[in-house]
Amino acid sequence: MAETALTNPEKSPAQSAGWKGIAADWSSDQRAFKNVSWGKAMMWIFLLSDTFIFSCFLLSYMTARMSTTVPWPNPSEVFALEIAGHHIPLILIAIMTFVLISSSGTMAMAVNFGYRRDRVKTAVLMLVTAALGATFVGMQAFEWTKLIMEGVRPWENPWGAAQFGSSFFMITGFHGTHVTFGVIFLVAIARKVWRGDFDHGRRGFFTSRKGNYEIVEIMGLYWHFVDLVWVFIFAFFYLW
Amino acid sequence: MVDVPYDRIADVPPAEVPEVELYHPKSWWTQYVFSQDAKVIAIQYSLTATAIGLVALVLSWLMRLQLGFPGTFSFIDANQYLQFITMHGMIMVIYLLTALFLGGFGNYLIPLMVGARDMVFPYVNMLSYWVYLLAVLVLASTFFVPGGPTGAGWTLYPPQAILSGTPGQDWGIILMLSSLILFIIGFTMGGLNYVVTVLQARTRGMTLMRMPLTVWGIFTATVMALLAFPALFVASVMMLFDRVLGTSFFMPALVEMGQQMKYGGGSPILFQHLFWFFGHPEVYIVALPAFGIVSDLISTHARKNIFGYRMMVWAIVAIGALSFIVWAHHMYVSGMHPHFGFFFATTTLIIAIPTAIKVYNWVLTLWRGDIHLTVPMLFALGFIITFVNGGLTGLFLGNVVVDVPLSDTMFVVAHFHMVMGVAPIMVVLGAIYHWYPKVTGRMLDDWMGKFHFWVTFLGAYLIFFPMHYIGLLGVPRRYHEIGEAAFIPSSTHTLNAFITVMALMVGFAQMVFLFNLVWSYFKGRPSGGNPWRATTLEWQTPETPPGHGNWGKELPVVYRWAYDYSVPGAEQDFIPQNQPPRPTRAVQEAAP
């Protein structure tokens, strides 16, 4: 069971490239995506579904922003900070984005070490990723606090269209929830890696199944997706 | 020419996927309650959906009593009437039909029909049911909260859905939106399982183009649901914020009771777009499993292969894809730009092409078939006729100029009840008669089944045909009482009373059906493993009902498509999918 992704060596020659290969895979028995394990397939399909959720959120926000009759607050000004006497627009968001993109880097390294079955390095890199994610959420909490102190509410704000606050809290809140869940799962999986569950074939408490190092990669898919979504939020909400 | 001895096992590719690793129950609780077995989860889903569906059925009786005999039943006031239509619609479409087709039939049939031991992630599958149950309980709780359930209509259009003029404004709408959000979360967990099981966990020899159409229908519907429900999820979240936090996503500036409300700047049309981006695929999320199941019922009970199997598959896929670009045909009267109406009317009419292909293929399957008028077959035939009827009135409503005067009349009610209510329910009932022997090991009683069919089928027509006429007269829907208006002839009231009596009779027939389900479980005739002499894998299990893990030691190997009925020269009039081909003559002669 552990080696779900193993190919059957005798089958390999049949795997031709390009459209022919795709047609051959889809007309074969057992699996449509050869060499793709169930968990990975499931995560990809979930991410496709989640893409639709974020797309709906962003499209709704854009509709509201374009159709409102009241001026939209200028994000560069709203999200500016006074640091050492300098007025720097979007500085906090820039740092947050940097942190989150960096966490994608550490996650990719964790996946790499996971496939080399390097227990300690994998776990440490996952924990670093989780820490960066937690930092991101922490900075988001700071940003929320700052805006709330300045009088921004979901139903109103001092600078213009009420939909600014509504969209801001809803979209960043939903994304932040994704990051938070990611952090929780990163820590849980890092613990399993650290304990050597995937080396000894320890069975899951609920599922009674043995896990394997592929779960690190699946976790990585989710994490990169959450980062990618942030890039879109950054572009459409903060830079527009 | 050298005769190569033909090895029928070697003809099938070797196993490349490990079997599903099963969770073996350790106690009564994990075997029957917190079960990870897809078959048990399917039955849990079905029973829960049926239970909440009965609530919706009773609500429809109350509505009909009010419409048929206005003023007679003092306990139904205008507010309650609105609450009844809302809850009836929402329960029937989402909590009954979607849950029953995908959670019920999907869970039971997908692993059995593709030759897997279970869904790929049984634990997630179990969570899916429990979140669904929670959603149902939250929904049912709205009957007991102050103010009662929401009366916004099942489409929940803002701004009225959350204004104080609408019943259920206190708690009803909040709990309704929360329940929808929970339903979508629960469904996603199950839906991912169904899709991955079909794509990645089929048995040896089971190619996609050998799958029974039932699996194709459920699979495509699940993919659609995973892409359509996000829009409803987002709409529910945003409306919940409008109601609870006072945001204005969907709320324009409003004056209520002479007071300027705090809302302003939101777009009610945005909600309609989001809702129908979910809502129209939802029609096909319910219809595609019905299409698939009915194809298998017709083929099995007419002892003939399905006509144009590949066309049937592609039609299912095409309908699924097209249904994502027709949503605004529900919004012709919303004030959209007329050019949009043109586009959406065109795409709507294009859907008629793959749908017509399916109907012709069903009829051509019946043509010169050995038709057995069993109860499942009766329901399948009833479906075809009802679906054609409902589909034809869809052509009226899909065209902008015809739709505008018919909008919000009883004609619309009659149309979608025929096409989306009666037709899929016919398939659900037929499918229960068809697969009940596999689930319980006993046949449902035939006499009660035929009584159930004829009363349901004829009754449905007697209910909904007059309703089309009433709608053409211009009687609006969602009115608690139509009263005396110049354009409504007095015969309308007589017709309304007639429809009510018919609705009660059809409702009574469903009680006979429920009695049949219980009675046959204990007293029914033992069915054996394959009472309909069907070819698909679920009928070839070593035990009936199928045991834990579905198959004995060995997974079945599939050698043929699902429709080898009445093959010339075969010993029986059906060849199961897992029966190997006979050795060729050359091999037979070479044998000593």
Describe this structure in words.
The complex is a heterodimer of chains A (240) and B (592). Chain A is mostly helical and 240 residues long. Chain A folds into two domains: 1-36, no CATH class; 37-239, Cytochrome c oxidase, subunit III, four-helix bundle (Four Helix Bundle (Hemerythrin (Met), subunit A), Up-down Bundle), CATH 1.20.120.80. Chain A has helices at 18-26, 38-67, 75-78, 91-115, 119-149, 163-195, 197-200, 214-239, and strands spanning 81-83, 86-88. Chain A has a two-stranded antiparallel ribbon with strand order 1-2. In chain A, helix 2 runs parallel beside helix 8 (214-239). The radius of gyration of chain A is 22 Å and the shape is globular. The two termini of chain B are 19 Å apart. Chain B has one domain: Up-down Bundle (Cytochrome C Oxidase, Chain A). Chain B is mostly helical and 592 residues long. In chain B, helix 2 (38-68) packs antiparallel against helix 3 (78-114), helix 5 packs antiparallel against helix 6 and helix 12 (410-440) runs antiparallel to helix 13. Chain B has helices at 28-33, 38-68, 78-114, 122-141, 172-200, 213-244, 268-301, 309-322, 338-366, 375-398, 400-406, 410-440, 446-473, 491-523, 585-590, and strands at 255-256, 259-260. At the A-B interface, helix 2 and helix 6 of A face helix 5, helix 6 and helix 7 of B.
